[in-house]
């Protein structure tokens, strides 16, 4: 099948929307425009066959940073800047593929025609409220038409399309006053808010759109859409935060960001940026990219649900990153390119490897407040096509010079990307604006960047390395040294697919500290080395609070690592098991340890002597985390009445836990310890194993940054403080054996 025929065939493809599954899809009877009934307009720029001779591509250097931020917004500055429109126009006029192929798809779309007639409504309903009929298809079709006509104007210069786009914007801003329905109204506010704001942002530079009409549209979108977006992110309709899938957060984040730029509201823009980085819900990047597998394959949060929703996550987070980039904020690169890890995972999982067989990807169990307990990769909708991959590929490869092999392959497979109306008549086909081949394609980068983002995770005497690759690289070499800065010895060559390497005894690895770099082999020779990273394979004391200080507010760390604790509120000193001890009053006293104390630790041991004065469920011996979504904790008594260790990156319902089988005694000294070694976790009381779990796939480093590392206090405000004494508090990098735990006593 040719590429041109392929894109035409997509009209019959149904793509699931991002709803919660509680509503029927829109049908052809919902008032959406009938494409066959619309007359074809003479395009402002004529179609060009794909066989036309192409000018030689002009390589471009990498963009190492986004445009610098300033106190004012760049306009147009959401999905597209003026430089982007200049590029599109030049490429289409030069008949250059694939831009012209994307242009031909645009001008063939029924929404991109002067005959299109808007149907503004006073109220839009998504989801049945038992009173009003759903009519949201009217809105998403009109948004698709506004965006398509706006693109035609900016690329061709034909102002008749600008006038059509403005007419649609004005019709809605003078009419719409309400979004309603059931909880699915949050999807309408998010999806259509971000899309409508993008269309308006393009048109704000058109002299034919009166300033009063722009102000009217800004007022409408700020007062009708934004309040719903904001309320959803802070309340989630009163549900526990893991109830909603990532896409619900993402569309509302996208809407807030887009409205912020359109309305020149920096606080609104920052709200979206802050939620992307630190939000409690599943749309924040650390939750959306739920689990990082070796080689930076980032398991997406909806992977165990279905692939239609999984691909939508990429089609929503990508625009958030692009809109931020165009305002000088690099969310693409945040947390070591975490979004790219998610995109590569989703792309690989939805690509055919050979015959009818898809690539396989690793998977770990996902659970939430609704006990979905997804234990396997979901194949429903596998291979679904959504536009959005051209944006991902062109940023990471042709802007940054990185390798994104699966995003690249997906983008090539589905180009030229269409827009609303090219992917079926239902809402899922309009959940993204589309046309990425036309709008996002960039000239090839001149040369790839050096390998980057190298990390090393030491576990069970091995070191697992992962890194980001380079555009044009054919393979990678791993080098290891015993001193920072080298010299290094090459320990692996010819790595060319999954960018990961496990260093082990087979390569001469022993107990100690090692330093690593990676280089790539390219057509022009070996690249510069990546960043250096290190790993320690020996068991190492990371913090030792003997708690013999006796006065002051500082608990000295004798490990030499500088991890002293600070006594807070009702924390004081008393006699202990060995010398002095920490005394906690059970009402507000605790000790705070430095931020990120275990952020680079995989295998771990935490041990202490405790004297529990008053039994209370969920009182913490320690709790390290960043809130009630990300933490690892040891409680003296859980629901079973016994001690419980748990670690989670998804709140209480996503905990991976070790439940003890013996109670922690009250009124006497008890030695407690917990170890994680690979996937095996063990809980000890007085040197005896009292609980274990062989499927602990989480480790401390997966918590990310932790600013709330506490002894005696919980991440949950309602939990009681520890009431009693604590002595000899130790943290080790590495898992001590049972004999070593006994020796600590």
From TrEMBL:
Protein name (Swiss-Prot/TrEMBL): Concanavalin A-like lectin/glucanases superfamily protein
Keyword Transmembrane included in the entry's annotation: no
InterPro entries: Alginate_lyase_dom, Chondroitin_lyas, ConA-like_dom_sf, FN3_dom, FN3_sf, Ig-like_fold
GO CC term (a single one): periplasmic space
Pfam families (alphabetical): Alginate_lyase (PF05426), Laminin_G_3 (PF13385)
Zinc-finger among keywords: no
Ranges of Pro residues composition bias in the record: 52-70
Entry's Gene Ontology molecular function annotations: carbohydrate binding; lyase activity
Stretches assigned to the Alginate lyase domain: 124-349
Swiss-Prot/TrEMBL keywords: Lectin, Lyase, Signal
Positions of region (Disordered): 45-70
Signal peptide span: 1-28
Source species, domain of life: Bacteria
């Amino acid at each position: 099948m040719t590429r041109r025929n392929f894109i035409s065939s997509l009209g019959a493809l149904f793509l699931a929307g991002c709803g919660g599954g509680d509503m029927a899809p829109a049908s052809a009877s919902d008032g959406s425009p009938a494409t066959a009934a619309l007359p074809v307009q003479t395009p402002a720029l004529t179609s060009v066959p794909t066989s036309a001779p192409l000018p030689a591509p002009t390589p471009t250097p990498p963009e190492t940073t986004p445009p610098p931020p300033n106190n004012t917004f760049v306009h147009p500055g959401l999905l597209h800047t003026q430089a982007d429109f200049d590029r599109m126009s030049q490429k289409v006029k030069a008949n250059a593929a694939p831009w012209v192929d994307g242009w031909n798809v645009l001008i063939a779309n029924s929404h991109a025609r002067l005959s299109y007639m808007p149907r503004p409504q006073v109220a839009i309903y998504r989801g049945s409220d038992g009173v009003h009929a759903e009519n949201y298809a009217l809105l998403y079709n009109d948004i698709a038409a506004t965006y398509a006509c706006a693109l035609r104007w900016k690329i061709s210069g034909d102002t008749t399309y600008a006038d059509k786009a403005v007419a649609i914007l004005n019709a809605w801003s003078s009419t719409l006053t309400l979004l309603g329905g059931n909880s699915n109204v949050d999807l309408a506010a998010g999806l259509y808010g971000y899309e409508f704001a993008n269309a308006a942002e393009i048109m704000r530079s058109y002299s034919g759109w009166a300033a009063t009409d722009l102000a009217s549209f800004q007022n409408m979108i700020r007062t009708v859409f934004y309040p719903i977006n904001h309320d959803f992110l802070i309340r989630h309709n009163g549900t526990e935060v893991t109830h909603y899938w990532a896409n619900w957060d993402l569309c509302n984040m996208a809407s807030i960001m887009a409205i912020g730029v359109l309305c020149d509201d920096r606080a609104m823009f920052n709200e979206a940026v802050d939620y992307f980085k630190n939000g409690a819900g599943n749309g924040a990047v650390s939750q959306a990219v739920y689990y990082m597998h070796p080689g930076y394959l980032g398991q997406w949060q909806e992977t165990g649900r279905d692939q239609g929703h999984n691909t939508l996550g990429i089609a929503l987070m990508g625009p958030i990153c692009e809109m931020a980039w165009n305002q000088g904020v690099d969310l693409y690169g945040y947390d070591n390119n975490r979004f790219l890890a998610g995109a590569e995972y989703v792309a690989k999982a939805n690509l055919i490897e050979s015959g009818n067989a898809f690539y396989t990807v690793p998977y770990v169990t996902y659970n939430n407040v609704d006990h979905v307990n997804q234990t396997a990769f979901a194949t429903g909708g596998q291979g679904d096509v959504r536009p959005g991959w051209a944006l991902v590929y062109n940023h990471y490869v042709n802007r940054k010079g990185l390798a994104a092999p699966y995003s690249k392959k997906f983008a090539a497979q589905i180009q030229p990307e269409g827009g609303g109306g090219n992917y079926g008549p239902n809402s899922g086909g309009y959940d993204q604006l589309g046309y990425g081949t036309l709008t996002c394609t960039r000239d090839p980068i001149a040369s790839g960047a050096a390998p980057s983002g190298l990390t090393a995770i030491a576990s069970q005497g091995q070191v697992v390395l992962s890194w980001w690759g380079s555009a044009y690289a054919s393979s990678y070499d791993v080098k290891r040294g015993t001193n920072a800065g080298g010299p290094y010895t090459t320990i692996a060559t010819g790595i060319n697919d999954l960018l990961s390497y496990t260093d082990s005894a087979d390569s001469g690895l022993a107990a100690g500290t090692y330093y690593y770099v990676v280089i790539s082999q390219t057509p022009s020779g070996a690249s510069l080395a990546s960043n250096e990273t290190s790993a320690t394979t020996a068991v190492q004391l990371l913090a030792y609070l003997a708690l013999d200080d006796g006065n002051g507010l500082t608990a000295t760390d004798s490990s030499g690592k500088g991890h002293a604790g600070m006594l807070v509120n009702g924390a004081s000193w008393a006699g202990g098991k060995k010398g002095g001890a920490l005394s906690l009053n059970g009402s507000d006293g605790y000790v705070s340890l430095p931020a990120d104390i275990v952020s680079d630790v995989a295998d771990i041991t935490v041990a202490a002597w405790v004297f529990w004065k008053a039994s209370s469920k969920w009182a913490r011996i320690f709790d390290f985390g960043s809130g009630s979504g990300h933490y690892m904790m040891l409680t003296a008594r859980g629901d079973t009445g016994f001690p419980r260790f748990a670690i989670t990156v998804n709140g209480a319902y996503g905990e991976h836990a070790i439940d003890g089988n013996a109670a922690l005694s009250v009124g006497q000294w008890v030695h407690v310890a917990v170890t994680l070694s690979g996937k095996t976790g063990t809980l000890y009381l007085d040197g005896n194993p009292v609980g274990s779990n062989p499927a602990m796939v989480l480790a401390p480093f997966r918590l990310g940054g932790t600013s709330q590392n506490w002894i005696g206090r919980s991440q949950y405000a309602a939990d009681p403080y520890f009431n009693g004494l604590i002595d000899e508090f130790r943290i080790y990098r590495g898992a001590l054996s049972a004999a070593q735990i006994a020796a600590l006593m």
